Amino acid sequence: MRATLDDLLRQCPTGTLALPAFTCYNLEQAVAVIQAAESADRALCLLLAEKAFRGRAGEMLAATLVTLADRAHVPTCVQLDHVADLETMHKALDIGVTALMADGSKLTLQANTELVAQAVTLAERYDASVEAELGRIEGDEDQATGSMAGTMTNPAQAASFVKQTGAHALAIAIGNVHGTYTSPPILDWQRLDDIRATTSTHITLHGASGLKEGDLKKAITHGVVKININTELRRTFFETLTTATPVHAKGWNLLELSHSLTTAVRETAADLLSEAFSG
Ligand SMILES: [Zn+2]
């Protein structure tokens, strides 16, 4: 059943579990992560990358994710990820997404605050939720490029930012990046604790791919309640495509190829659900 991000995060026991959020670029990935979540009896978030939404089939992909969320046997939210303009947000809300990631991290603090506040006003008309970003998580969400950590979240700004914007969740930069890491990441745990000390909003972690398993558990113990994962699912998809294509090429059997891809991604998601989203 479709759910809002805010509802799912409220139900997430802080310090013990985090909501799994998986980026889905196609039907195979989306079906796979939903099946994994249903098997684990866990709520989940389907992430729709902004570039995917802007692509030729973007609106159909959004509608597909919304339909899959409606049909899922576990509470499922659909979130348009990292979007910085209100028109795109509006379009996605009209299709039925239940959350936005209003990303003003490239803007000044004042402009970021205004963008998120406007996104919250817009989303509330649809009973949808808004996640914001304070500081800057570097890297590319859609391809594995190595990145160094960006501007860290300033704990002194977090409380007023959340209060002024009305954001339902806050993505933090504490040494995490999107994609892959150019050097082993060192997360600033004290900064996370300081952010949590100033605001009671839900804290989310992006760029979890490449972090040590222990780091994810530690992040949850320190209060992170949503973790975004993308790279692992894409890696599995491509590796399976490489091995399964020659097997199913005889007769061009798309059904079997699709089945192989869904099965492989489901197994990766199931492994992550059993290992990465509990403290
Ligand atoms: Zn992200």
CATH C-level class is Alpha Beta
What is the CATH architecture annotation?
Alpha-Beta Barrel
How much of the sequence is in beta strands?
A: 15-25%
Radius of gyration, in Å, reads: 18 Å
H and E string = HEHEHHEHEHEEHEEHEHEHH
Shape type: globular
Mean pLDDT: 93
Share of helix, binned: 40-55%
By DSSP (H or I, 4+ residues per run), the number of helices equals: 11
Q: What's the topology here?
A:
Elements: H1 5-10, E1 19-23, H2 27-40, E2 44-49, H3 50-54, H4 58-71, E3 76-83, H5 86-95, E4 99-102, H6 109-124, E5 129-134, E6 146-147, H7 155-165, E7 169-172, E8 180-181, H8 189-198, E9 202-205, H9 213-221, E10 224-229, H10 231-248, H11 254-275
Parallel strand pairs: 1-2, 1-10, 2-3, 3-4, 4-5, 5-7, 6-8, 7-9, 9-10
Helix pairs in contact: 2-4, 2-11, 5-6, 7-8, 10-11
Describe this structure in words.
Its cofactor is Zn(2+). One of its GO terms (biological process) is carbohydrate metabolic process. Zn(2+) 2 binds at residues 103, 133. Helix 5 runs parallel beside helix 6 (109-124) and helix 10 (231-248) packs antiparallel against helix 11 (254-275). The protein has a single domain, classed as Aldolase class I (TIM Barrel, Alpha-Beta Barrel), CATH 3.20.20. With 279 residues, it is α/β, with parallel strands linked by helices. Helices cover 48% and strands 17% of the residues. The strands form 2 sheets. It has an 8-stranded parallel beta barrel with strand order 1-2-3-4-5-7-9-10, surrounded by 7 helices. Strands 6-8 form a two-stranded parallel sheet. It is built from 11 helices and 10 strands. It has helices at 5-10, 27-40, 50-54, 58-71, 86-95, 109-124, 155-165, 189-198, 213-221, 231-248, 254-275; strands at residues 19-23, 44-49, 76-83, 99-102, 129-134, 146-147, 169-172, 180-181, 202-205, 224-229. Zinc ion (ZN) binds next to loops.
